[in-house]
Amino acid sequence: MKLLVIGNGPCAVSAIEEFRKIDKESEIVVLTDEEYPAYAPNCMENVIRGDISNEALFFKGGMEFYKKNRVEVLFKSPALSVDAVNKTVLLPKGVKESFDKCLLCAGAKAFIPPIPGIDLMGVSTAKTLSDALKIKSWIDSKRVKRALIIGAGPIGIEDAQTLNEMGIKVSVVEFFDRVLPRMLDGHMARYFIEPLIKEGIEFYLNHQVVAIHGEDGWVEWVEIKQNGQNSSKFIQADLVIISTGVRPRVELVADTDIKLHISETTGKVVGGILVNQYQQTSNPDIYAAGDIASGMDRWGNLRWVALFPSAIQSGAIAGQNLAGKKVENLGLVDYNAVKTRTVTAASAGTFEDAEESLLFEISGRLIKLFLKQGLLCGYQVVSKPRSYYLNEKNPFLRGQRKLDGMGLEESGVLFHHIRERKFTERLIKAIKSGNLRALANPLYEAPLF
After folding, report:
1. Which of 335, 362, 396, 434 has the largest count of CB atoms under 10 Å?
2. Under CATH, which number does the domain 123-244 receive?
3. Please, is 392 exposed, middle or buried when counting C-beta atoms within 10 Å of its C-beta (0-12, 13-18, 19+)?
4. Is the pTM above the cut of 0.90?
């Protein structure tokens, strides 16, 4: 059998590892539009700062991963479309790659809004390693004194704090009325933003960028407007980072009958490629996992979850099933976290349709639980800023970390392991003890601070 894997991120890596544990003989070919071995996509701010080693960045050992698992990887070979009937994938210059079974894990692409001036030098997304290296080179050139970030989602917030740390004056423009709008409600978002404002980061909430201006091909000013207003403000910027979200790469199956996640109300595509509990698409020989797919989350909702933990999880399940197993995904883990040096936030589940909420303050953390029909449907956590000191017992600081792909970001949440989500005394006790996260690798549970 020939397994064709489209994509080369953590989801693909997870799938290949699980597949090879079961199937030692089948051919595996990976198609990727990038030029790098699998890397940790959640470390791009570290690349911009220049404080991450290649060992940590290429978390599976670089090219050794493909050699170990007998994988043929085709770099700079973007998949253009899938022919589900003839079992081929179209590449540039008319080249076709055949398959017996295919795993679609090409992820999501950065959404770039149609803003005049978006093509000026000094303007970039910050999603890929190429993006991060480009931004770092601009900063290293000493040209960047002021930066503006479009979007206050997780990537935008972490990049803002990173650049501010590096001595760059940072402004953040967000269309919604709060930061982290998909993670936090208004109350928790206000709590989260306070220390970042004190650090000197400027926020323009309820605003949008209407144009980017510059001379000699390089960005100089960004024009913004408050929603519902006509007057413009102009903010000086030598660097603009676009962080306006991502979209699943469903165009790969545009000419097939593979089903997509479509809203029953509007009839419009609202997510990725639709998969069942085995990560199988509507075509039995084509599977999908990670950011490109939509499936059931741990809370029982059909959702598109474009997060690192769910990519690892769904990739592993897809790999096992492609190798002949019958393993069900019991629900995507939708845990998301944003970490800065002064404040952190985490969330899971949904909160928009909650009927009531409960608030706790435990050990410097503000914890909000959202209930619907008496059941826990989501939660949010925001830490309080406090003084830290280094914990010398942490294996990272002792230089004893052996990277095996089980990093701190591969974390589950205690709530996801509770089958009955009734708001019981047992659950309250767990919450009050601060027992919210269960790290994937106990070796690294010692806190950094």
Report:
1. 335
2. 3.50.50.60
3. exposed
4. no
